[in-house]
Structures are given as C-alpha cells and as structure tokens.
Design brief:
With about 725 residues, this protein is α/β, with parallel strands linked by helices. Helices cover about 30% and strands about 25% of the residues. The strands form seven sheets. A seven-stranded parallel beta sheet has the order 11-12-10-13-14-9-15, with helices on both faces. Strands 16-26-25-17-24-23 form a six-stranded parallel beta sheet, sandwiched between helices. Strands 2-1-4-3-5 form a five-stranded antiparallel beta sheet. The structure holds adenosine-5'-diphosphate (ADP) and zinc ion (2 copies).
Amino acid sequence: MSSAILRIAVPSPLRRLFDYLPPPQMSAPALPGQRFLLPFGRGRCVGILMEVAEHSELPLEKLRPALRQLDPQPLFDEGMMALLRWASDYYHHPPGEVFAAALPVLLRQERPAQVGGIRCWALTETGKATSDESFGRAHKQRQLQRLLLQHGRLTAVQLNELSEGWRTPMKRLVAQGLVCEQELPCLALRSDESDQPPPLNPAQQRAVDAIDAARDGFNTLLLEGVTGSGKTEVYLQAIARVLAAGRQVLVLVPEIGLTPQLYQRFTRRFDCPIALLHSGLNDNERLCAWSMARSGEARIVIGTRSAVFTPLPEPGLIVVDEEHDASLKQQEGFRYSGRDLAVVRARREGIPLVLGSATPSLETLANTQAGRYQLSHLPERAGEATPPNLRLIDVRQQPLQDGLSPPLLQAMRHHLERGGQVLLFLNRRGFAPTLLCHECGWVSHCSRCDAHHTYYARQGRLRCHHCDSEQRLPPQCPDCGSLDLIPVGQGTERLEQALQEQFGAAGVVRIDRDSTRRKGAMDTMLAAIHRQEYRVLIGTQMLAKGHHFPDVTLVGIVDADQGLFSQDFRASERMAQMIVQVAGRAGRAGRSGEVLIQTHAPDHPLLRRLVEEDYRAFAMAALDERREAEMPPYSHLALIRAEAVAQAEPMAFLSLLQQTIRQLPHAGVFVLGPVPALMERRAGRYRAQLLLQSAQRAPLHQLLRALLQQMEGMKEARKIRWSLDVDPLELY
Ligand code: ADP
Ligand code: ZN
Ligand code: ZN
C-alpha cells in the first residue's frame, strides 16, 4: 500500500490525470470515486480518485502526497465512473472538469458528503386545527395553511413553486404559533393528495408494454405524439411499474419544461420521495436532492440536463422529455448533451430509455429509421381536438400593419368576436430590432458587438441582446443631430402597443423574458389568461413550451422567415419545431385551432411539407437535404471556437491549428475554415471558428485526440480563449 500511487482527476484544463502519493493518514482504503484534498500548484484543490496504480511515470520523489482523504466511501459507483470517463473521452474535456461538473457545488469543496439541515415549515397542532373562517381576510395565510395541510412540510424552494409572496404571511403564521420552522436532514417532495391512473388507450398501452418489455435490457424508445396525446401519462404508468419492481427512475426535462404542474402531477400520482434538481435550487438543496438519490431514498429524480449525472443505486428507467429541446445541451464549459449521455447511461446500466417529443430531433428520427430506436406513436385520440389547421399567408406585396397582414388581422377579429383567444408568436423581444436616423441613415450599434441595439420604447432605452449592455435613447442622431429617429422592424413590445390600439378591449398581454422578469409575474399572467382577462396573447418562445391555453382558437406566426433564411443548417428544423409546438399549445376537445403562418417564401419546399402534410413529412424532407449536404445526422461535426480582444488573433490561432491538422493523420476528416463567426465581435471580443466534419466518428475523434495533445505544448493555445464543441448545436 505504501508504494501505491493515486491517479486523480483534478479540475484543471489539462486533459490528463495527476499522480499523488497517499495522504499521511487514511481512515478507509483508497477506492476510485472518493475525493481527496490535494496540494495543487501553490494552492489546494479537491480531486477524484480514478485508480490506484503501482507505478508512476514520474520519479517517486517528485510526487506530492495528498493532504486528506475526504470520503470513506466512493461518491460514484463503477457505472457512473465509467460513464464520466466515457464523457471525458467523447467530448475531449479534461477529466477533472467533467467530474467536477457531475458533483453538486458543495462537494467540489472540502465539505463532507453529509447533508446539513434544510429549513422547512410545518403546521403546529393548533395550526392544523385552525378553521378556514378564523383566517378572516388573511387569504394568503389560509392558502399557506391549506398547502401545508396537503403536503405536510414544505421547503423554501417548494414554496416558491407553489405560492407567490409566501414569506411575509408565513412569518405571521409562525408568530401566531400556527406554523413551526424545522431543520430536517433531507426532504423530498411528497403530496398527500393522490390521483388514480386512468385506463390507457391502446396506443398508450402498447408504449407502456414496450417500455416494460425492455425492463431487463437496454432499449431506446421514441415516444412521438403531439401535446395532449398522453405522453406524460405513458411516462407515469411506465414509471409506476418500474417503482413497483423496486427500481429508481430518472426524468430529464428541458429547463423550461420543469413546471409546477408537471411535478404536482408526479407527486399526486406517486406516494414516494421525489427529488428535484434544477437551477432554482441553492447549493445546500442541490446537495440534499443529490444525496437522497444516491442513498436510494428518492425513488424518482426529475431534473434538467445535469441531472443525468445523478448517482442512482437502483436505476430502472430513464425518461427524456422534449428530447429535441436545445437546452438539454450544455452550451459552455463542458459541452455535453444530456440526452445523448442519457442514451449512453441507459445502455451501460442495461435499462430502457424513453425519448418523448411532439417534434423529435432529426438525429432521433434518423436513429429510429435505422432501427436503433423503437418507435411508439401516439395518435390524437378520438373525441379530442382535431389537429390544428395550418395555413400559409403570403405576405409579399401585402400592406403590413405593424407586421400583420390583412388576412391575419381579419382572422383575429373573427376569432375574438366568437369568443376565442388569439396567440401571436414573434420570437423577437423589445420594440424594434433597429433604430435608424431618417435623415442620414445612422443606425444605433452596440459598441461591443457587431449588432444593432434593440429599441425599448416604454423605457426609452437601447439594449444589446448579445452582451446585455444598455443605454438611454439619444435625444437626437449623434451623427447629424436630426430628431427623426425611427424604429425599424417588429418586436413583441411594438406588437403589443399596436394591438392595444386595435384590440385593447379584448385585453392584450405580452409574455417574454422582459415582461416576466419579476418573480411570480409569469404565474399571475397565466392565471389571468385562464380567466379570459386577456384574449390577445403575444409571446416569444417562452410561450411555445410547457403551458397549455385551452381557449386559444387562433395562432398567428408573425414571421416564419427568420428560420428559413438563416445560415445555420438547423434553423429550419428549429422553426418547424417551434411552429408545431406553438400550434400545440392551443385548442381543446371539440374545437380545432387555426394556425396562420406569415411568410415571404410561401413556396419554400420544407415549409410546404410542414403545412400541407405534417412535421413527419417535413422531417423526412429535411433529412434528405441533410443527407445530400452530408450534414448531421449523416456526418459528425466538431467545432473549435476561438476568441480574443485583438481581431487578428483568433483567425491566426485557428490557422495554426489547421496547419497542425494537416501534419496529423486526418484521412476522412474535412476541415472547413477558419472563418470569422457570423457575428464576429461580441461583448468586445472577436470570434472565429474551425469546423471539422467526418462521415465516421472514429477518424474525427482520433484526429481530435492527436490535435489536443499537440495543443498542450502550444504556447499560443495558452494565450487565447478557445473551446471545443463536439456535436455542436449552433454553428454560428
Ligand atoms: P402530453 O404529455 O402528450 O402532453 P398528457 O399525458 O399530459 O399528454 O395528457 C393530456 C391530458 O389527457 C392530461 O390531462 C391527461 O391527464 C389526460 N390523459 C392522458 N391519457 C389519458 C387516458 N388514457 N385517459 C384519460 N385521460 C388521459
Ligand atoms: Zn442622422
Ligand atoms: Zn452588445
């Protein structure tokens, strides 16, 4: 043991492990998956033991001893260790950073893996016995009492989800002795309410059976069905069987998909501890949820992409909801796909995986076509809303009024007169994307980005959506002094203002990142929409996900062209998904919705397939295009990005990499670029990129490995900010 070498993954940009001698004292044998406190450079850091080796390539006297063993037991079991090693390899990301990303923040520090207390609130006996009437006009207090009666105890995170502005009334309840504060070691969401699973329709039943049949082996199932077709019900009943078999379940959702409605549905259905992992948690709560999953106490884990790293002693099923959603991919630092890692994890664990979507990604559809994934399709059920009727509006040569064509305006009036709600989708915040001087043609640019300022009329400000800098509206043109500054183009704020004038009586509301910034604002708006206080809804992609608007009978896509003429090869896929998702938010049983799509390209072949047939037909045509262009999923990409304050540096650095690649074995890999990024300057830095493309994965990854090795010795690589993105979602 004395000559044992600890090979440790240390959070450092270096793509290798570091050798240490054991610390002077160890309370338990050294096992892979334990954390050690280490001397590193002039400081110290926490690393994860990967293996205990007998020899080091370095002479023993050069090795430093670790300072302390932090965990008596490994934090990750062998399966998770293998998954993380695989991820480090596949994404060519430093192992120490991969392991750090998989740990809750508190465990990246010197802390013990035990969990501190979590504050929560519960009713006292008096509180339980207090009648509704005795609260008088303290409605909020009564609501809190009801919630506590229903749930037993609640933490701050849970209360934030369930109730708005709960802190002050809660303090009053505590002061009156109706509620007590407790510190609990750990807590999972649980509800005393329960609901009974409905009998499944035949398609749902087949899906649940298919998942069940794969219980003892890996199988990926694509569950395809529009919003409301019963996908979540399939998850719930498949999960019930897995829980009954004594196994745990992991459910991954996109950031915006983790709505209170979703987990209320879970807590009502299952009488077992459920751990939530999302960005709203503080560090302690995150550690708590993670520990409960790891100990096996939590039987279900619902979380966003990083939850794919949650240790589970008895995994039985993984579900990825809205598998096409881009937020399942981490876009900075360790750039991994939560969905793809879920596939890898399920295969390693030998358990079934369900990918659910109304608009599956082209990657997933190609895998289904190739027979790698099994398809379960949920048709809309009889008696349910008939599928919305999509129609294109050719806006060429039409007089547009605030971006709206006469046919769309007429349809809005028609639907409003008949008592329906109207939803207008425009994926552009602010009043106008450009502010222009009518005298001299000056345009307000962000000084730090190659981008126009977005004009916010109500606040009288100019804001850059790329670096978040903002400034007051200049009183006159800075170039010629003219007062004639005009906003050009449509944003949601402008649309809102224009519609106020025309349809104010119907109630106009705007839902975007600006109007929902204040906590609880979103819930308030949604509630008012459900009460029909607003009948004209304007929104960005925030509206396309998660929420359902049963009274909406007309959906207007104000500008479909954004997605058709972008340089990004995925833009049309995203646009089609967005249109279908927005359309799916509308309507209810017996009422079919109408969807009008404004475009300058009514003959665009992909758009026609979508409108005249359906998403499937669109996707098949889009896949044909991808095959011809040799783009993913028919090829594999890796993107190297570089950025610097000096304009020439990123291009020079990437050219150097390109030359290095030429000297390495690179058969089968195309090297495209380097080119400046489409928006070259952002937040004061110039950006460029080099794209590697290959029909096969293996040569691409071999080349990347060799290239990264060369780069370790390259002094230029240490001076510039660069990153590698394997399977990038965004190319520009
Ligand atoms: P999705 O996840 O595809 O949007 P859901 O599972 O949420 O669909 O189902 C939509 C609605 O239909 C929900 O209110 C759900 O409770 C209900 N539902 C789903 N399946 C059934 C079923 N077999 N019988 C009755 N109601 C169902
Ligand atoms: Zn001017
Ligand atoms: Zn900017």
